[in-house]
Specification:
The chain is α/β, with parallel strands linked by helices. Helix content is 43%, strand content 12%.
């Protein structure tokens, strides 16, 4: 496969994601059909539309699930994809204009422009039924509910980690490091072999923010799982906590040559090319990217936790980073039809189908030996609960995450100090 072809097919997205606002990898829009491939639907059935982020034409798992539902029920579904890097703006603009799709994929919580709680409080979302509420992970109610009403249904659990190109690492004699100190040594070894240890989209705040949150799993949340609650209570600050270690690690990695040349201006294309071409060994991206890259290139990839520093334990990130939601302004019969689809998607067999299509973990639960093989390195952590959700999901507003992502850009260029970034995050929280 040519490098051009590989690059075209290796764009993946993460709404999170900072589900998008976190964490989105850019790409181009796919077609607007439902991917049914000849499925027959009942034209008299009440259909509906779903807007989704799509990185490329092959990134069609929402359309595949919708097509399966249409095949089984006769209900027509129009899946409307938008480029991943434009999705947040499309959702918020169309909701405000009153012309958004009947359903959409959102980010749970409050930390992003397309966060469930933020949009529900603004009156844009329809309350969902008990089946939808029952799917969402226990303990995550605050990310999906307002005043006891549930406004979104999780799609799956999405591990986020250091996607590791085993094949490329073998070429320079590197195994995934067990500790942060080993990582710094491996950065030099990778450089000597003509590669970078990590490829970073340093010019994109979504990616610098995601990378920092991944480090925070071991530096902050392994020791203090309720750190966000403590910050909300005013008991801790970014400046006086493990978040200082997170940012100091970023600076140390930059100084040690861990990132690709020009990382401060890096884009998602750099990640695609670095991981797909084997010139970089790792990237902080959604775990589903491991299967995508492996399938496109034939290389072996897996998903790893960021290495703990001396005296710390391994910890990682996963959570319900994406969620279905219904537009409150749609017609009543359309909303009823959309809820029926969500009830169907909540059934364990259909939740498993979605997880397999998207490269995620079924929302119905984590069983280590039933995970996709790419997740084997973190399977024990996931099954034993040694993980945190995306930290920014319960930050009070998108400005905190913006301060982190933009602040790390400033660290890479030398225009900001660690103290400045931490102070800006604390100010944004307030």
């Amino acid at each position: 496969m040519s490098q051009h072809s590989t690059s075209r097919h290796l764009r993946w997205s993460l709404l999170a994601i900072p589900a998008a606002g976190a964490l989105i990898l850019s790409g181009c829009s796919g077609s607007g059909d439902n991917g049914g491939g000849g499925s027959t639907t009942d034209p008299t059935a009440t259909g509906f539309s779903i807007m989704v982020a799509q990185a490329n034409d092959a990134d069609d798992y929402y359309a595949q699930l919708a097509a399966q539902y249409s095949d089984e029920t006769g209900v027509p579904i129009e899946v409307i994809p938008y480029p991943s890097d434009a999705y947040n703006t499309q959702v918020t603009t169309q909701l405000q204009a009153g012309n958004a799709a009947d359903m959409m994929i959102l980010a749970p919580g409050t930390g992003q422009p397309i966060s469930v709680v933020t949009l529900a409080e603004a009156g844009f979302l329809e309350p969902l039924d008990a089946a939808s509420a029952g799917v969402n992970p226990a303990g995550s109610e605050a990310e999906f509910q307002v005043d006891g009403e549930t406004y979104a249904q999780a799609t799956a659990l999405t591990p986020v980690g250091m996607v590791f190109n085993v094949t490329a690492a073998d070429e320079v004699g590197i195994e995934y490091p067990a500790t942060y100190e080993d990582l710094l040594a491996d950065c030099a070894t990778a450089r000597d072999g003509g590669k970078s240890f990590t490829v970073l989209a340093g010019g994109i705040p979504f990616n610098t923010g995601l990378f920092s949150m991944l480090i925070s799993a071991t530096r902050v949340y392994a020791e203090t799982p309720d750190w966000n609650a403590q910050r909300a209570a005013g008991d801790v600050t970014f400046a006086d906590s493990g978040w200082r270690d997170v940012l100091e690690d970023v600076v140390e990695m930059s100084d040690a040559g861990c990132f690709q040349d020009g990382a401060e201006g890096g884009t998602f294309d750099n990640i695609t090319q670095g991981m797909g071409g084997g010139t970089s060994l790792t990237a902080a991206v959604p775990g589903s990217a491991a299967a995508s890259i492996s399938g496109a290139t034939g290389a072996e990839l897996n998903v790893q936790a960021f290495p703990p520093a001396g005296g710390q334990k391994a910890f990682t990130i996963t959570g319900a980073n994406y969620a279905w939601a219904i537009n409150a302004s749609s017609e009543e019969d359309v909303k009823t039809s959309a809820q029926a689809f969500l009830d169907w998607a909540a059934q364990p067999e259909n939740a498993t189908t979605y997880a397999e299509l998207s490269g995620a973990v079924p929302i119905s639960g984590i069983v280590a030996d039933e995970l996709l093989p790419e997740y084997a390195p973190i399977g024990g952590l996931l099954s034993e609960g040694e993980y945190t959700g995306l930290p920014n999901a319960t930050w009070p507003n998108p400005a905190v995450y913006d301060a982190l992502g933009v602040g790390v850009q400033g660290l890479l260029t030398g225009q900001k100090t660690v103290d400045q970034v931490l102070d800006e995050m604390d100010a944004a929280w307030g």
